[in-house]
């Protein structure tokens, strides 16, 4: 009997282990152990930025490497064939995080159930067009998009406006989508922020990852103010002020500001096309930091609805330094503003007030 037990004991133990594993697997099958897909809208998806952006989203560069996504792509009827081609390429890329893709010219279908919206589509200024003509076209587009998002997107949808004039397009969207909290509507100035980081990195021959806390104030236009006053750089001797390391205020107030302000135009001159790869990358950076949080001790630049901070008129969509936590952004308060910065910030605010007036005149 003892001999029999000694022979059967390993078999009994193995049987118990197998039974336990079957029970675990059975329970596991009833649990949702993975993340639910997030539905992401990209408008203007057949364009250059959209073409660069959608694979980045599908690879996890926007929402994280373990977050499945369903991508809704919207474009105008004239771009329907190109849009379908983008869809085919996404499918052909066999990206594991991509759980579905919709390519449509119907704004209601595109906006239905979306939780993240990246508004790349807009009407570009063409030769011979007046500023008011461009504004009128974009006011019409963003008023329609606002209505569709307000009625059909998820209640917690977060919106990033990329298309220019980005700040004012975001303002119009905010005004005409009252069901979306105003803190959930932002515009892209992260591209300018990243450009500022790159300029300081090159100037100091430092890794760009070692540079932080530049600020882009104001409008995503040539009136923006790239500010390195509070920027720091990690060095072998510890964290140092970028301003002290550069030791050239003339460069910081002149060439640095101009290079960031004019970088888009310089790229157009070189490529004969506007920035696409860097804009798509910046859109991913913006949404990732907004949703997943900014690193401790760091801030980023985002176009957000002003609460009156730093003397900027409340209600304007203006670029501020912000920190993000639990999917919410907060304007960094209490930074010292010198006279030079004050003047530059006010110039950009004035331009945005003029754009707001022009946009509202187009509504009439």
Main attributes?
3-stranded antiparallel β-sheet, 364 residues, 2 domains, 48% helix, 6-stranded parallel β-sheet, alpha/beta, L-2-Hydroxyisocaproate Dehydrogenase, Chain A, domain 2, Rossmann fold
Q: Could you provide a short overview of the structure?
A:
Keywords: NAD, Oxidoreductase, Tricarboxylic acid cycle. The active site is at residue 220. The protein is an alpha/beta fold.
What is Rg? 25 Å
What kind of sheet is the major sheet? 6 strands, parallel
Question: What is the number of domains?
Answer: 2
Task: State the order of secondary-structure elements, H for helix, E for strand.
Answer: HEHEHEHEHEHEHEEEEEHHHHEEEH
Please give the alpha-carbon distance between the first and last residues.
Answer: 98 Å
CATH architecture of the largest domain: Alpha-Beta Complex
- Classify the helix fraction into a percent range: 40-55%
How many runs of DSSP E, i.e. beta strands? 14
Q: What number is the mean pLDDT?
A: 91
Which residues form runs of ≥5 with pLDDT under 50?
1-32
Structural class: alpha/beta
The CATH superfamily of the largest domain is known as Lactate dehydrogenase/glycoside hydrolase, family 4, C-terminal
Number of helices: 12
Write out the strand line-up for the largest beta sheet, numbering strands in chain order. Answer: 3-2-1-4-5-6
For the record, what CATH class of the largest domain applies?
Alpha Beta
Pfam families: Ldh_1_C, Ldh_1_N
Organism: Salvia divinorum (Maria pastora)
Binding site for substrate: 125, 131, 164, 195
Protein name: Malate dehydrogenase
